[in-house]
Amino acid sequence: MDQVIRRINELASKARAEGLNEEELAERDKLRNIYRQKVLDNLRSQLGDKP
């Protein structure tokens, strides 16, 4: 998960500085979805819900 977060941050920095190309935008969206799903899974686990 640390690698996912690190890459999201790299892409965010690049987006602010110079913008992202189509491939990087797609990668960013994919990584954000992975991160979002992990957060939701963790929350469900803590609340005791089954996915």
Would you kindly provide a written description of the structure presented here, covering whatever features stand out?
With about 50 residues, the protein is mainly alpha-helical. It has a single domain (about 1-45), classed as Helix Hairpins (Orthogonal Bundle). Helix content is about 80%, strand content about 0%. The chain contains 2 helices and no strands.
Kindly list the characteristics that best describe this protein.
51 residues, mainly alpha, Helix Hairpins, 82% helix, elongated
Please report which band the strand proportion falls in: under 5%, 5-15%, 15-25%, 25-35%, 35-45% or over 45%.
under 5%
Could you state the oligomeric state of the chains shown? Answer: single chain
Separation, N- and C-terminal Cα atoms: 20 Å
Mean pLDDT: 94
CATH class: Mainly Alpha
The helix-and-strand class reads mainly alpha
Tally of discrete structural domains: 1
| Poorly predicted parts | none
- CATH T-level fold name: Helix Hairpins
Largest sheet: none
Q: C-alpha Rg, in Å? A: 14 Å
What's the tally of helices?
Answer: 2
The helix/strand series, from N terminus to C terminus, equals HH
Question: Mind sketching the topology for me?
Answer:
Layout: H1 2-17, H2 22-47
Summarize the structure.
The chain has one domain (2-47): Helix Hairpins (Orthogonal Bundle), CATH 1.10.287.
